[in-house]
Amino acid sequence: MRSRLVPYLQTGPAMLWLGIFFVVPLISIASISLMTGNSIAGWDLTWNFSVFPDAIDQYSPQILRSFLYGGISTFIALVAMYPVAYWIAFHGGRRKSLFLFLLLLPFLVSFIIRILTWQFILADDGLVIGTLKSVGLVGENAHVLSTPTAVITGLTYDALPWMALPIYVAIEKIDRDLVEAAGDLYASGYEQFRRVILPLSAPGIYAGILLVGITNVGDFLSAQILGGPNTTMIGNIIQTQYVQNADFPVASALSLILMLGLMLCVFIYAWVFGTRTIQEYA
Amino acid sequence: MAGRGASPGSDSARPVRSRPWSRFVLPVYVTVVMLYTLIPIAVMIVYTFNKAPNQRLTFAWNGFTTEWYGKVFQVADLTQALWHSLEVAVISSIIATALGTPAALALARRKFRGRGLIDLTVITNLTAPTVVVGASLLGFFIALSIPRGITTILIAHVAFNIAIVIIVVQARVSGYDESLEEAAQDLGASPLVAFQKITLPMIMPGIFSAFLLSFALSIDDYIITSFVAGQTLTFPLWVAGAVRVGIPPQVFVMGTMIFVAGVLIAIASLIMQRRSERNLARSDPASRATT
Q: Which long-range contacts (CB under 8 A, 24 or more apart) does B114-118 make?
């Protein structure tokens, strides 16, 4: 018989690493946010709770914008990719692996280059806008880069495969006999979809929204490369405050606000749509 | 999963019911979306052939050249940054796979006190916004006055790759029959030998794909690295810094080379997986009967 210690020996090294370099730092941002001071004189824990209302006051446009951009891009990705995931799972036939491979192909291009190419596509004298201008379809002054549209385009593009994968996995698991049975019981194609396929794919939708939503609300590369001064997101603020301005308390407070805001969104989602279906079908 | 899709007679390969909707509208839509997702790849490859008089790519097309493929390593600090990225990706994936695999085995097969806490840690690590992970880690390094550089990048990458390895390997292990290892032990094999001869070969594809995924995520990471890098530049950091002054064509050439290498590795691992599945099915008639 195996010793009871074995699982602890097996998980120990990994958990030690995660504990020191993930859990401890994550918890300590709460205490960092309550410190006052500066880089030269040092930092003291003064329980300065006013950092939270101050940060919200000062950065509420960026906070709201992050959730707005994140929400819109997640929604577009969901609506765009659900039919793709459905079709590959139910009608992909023998070429299923090929379709999945094509779907995941963008992952083989560096994240930063994926975003950067949208700069080339959307630039005023770039591929799309430049061409439209020379044909005369849009005005000379039209531009997309550094507008919310550009940032959301980047966020949405990056979300597409991440959204499609979990939904595909969920639909792929659905028992085809259930769909057939619904058809035998005179459910129309629409009803088969709404009452059988859609509820059974709910766990995939949930996973996709979680994965993409959290990533996109906290993203700052799209705003940094495709956006302008009026599209700054919360991630950009955290990054500049932490790395450039060394204002650790504000950056930590904003990190906590971002985390709590996202958790709130997850709870609201679970409350509105119910977690029962997720647990039942997962 | 792959086995289900591969056999033509199985349930999932049979189209549910063909209607004009699924026969014409959906395929056209899927094709359009697929093409859309491939646009940036095409743009990247096309622009590697664009002439760039000032050694910086312009949005406008200046004419065709293959010049940049010959000069791919000419920008010294960009090449240096690419090496940093590769170094970090290889080392962090190896460490994460070495630490994550035993943990995944324990989580997939043993019930023990505290595993709920471990599951929670792993899930939090996977779902926490990367900007928060990066910021908190930088605060941690600053508080302990650890100088930022390639070591801190490595530490951060191992930390986010461990959770990936645990999830991927765990998914692979929980799908297989443990009685084989027990049978080997009943026939006199020591636990170590049984693990080496039975379990390891079976979970090898899972370990391999966990390693590849770690490698891909590590070489790609911008957000967490931007916090913990200090003065050290990886490929994504270098490119992000160059955006303001203009991108040298070499960036897209390197991107294209990474892309081509990625496609080749993906195809190779797909073929390997097919072959090992076929071998397994041949050597173990029982598994054929159950699928």
A: B114/A8, B115/A7, B115/A11, B118/A11, B118/A15
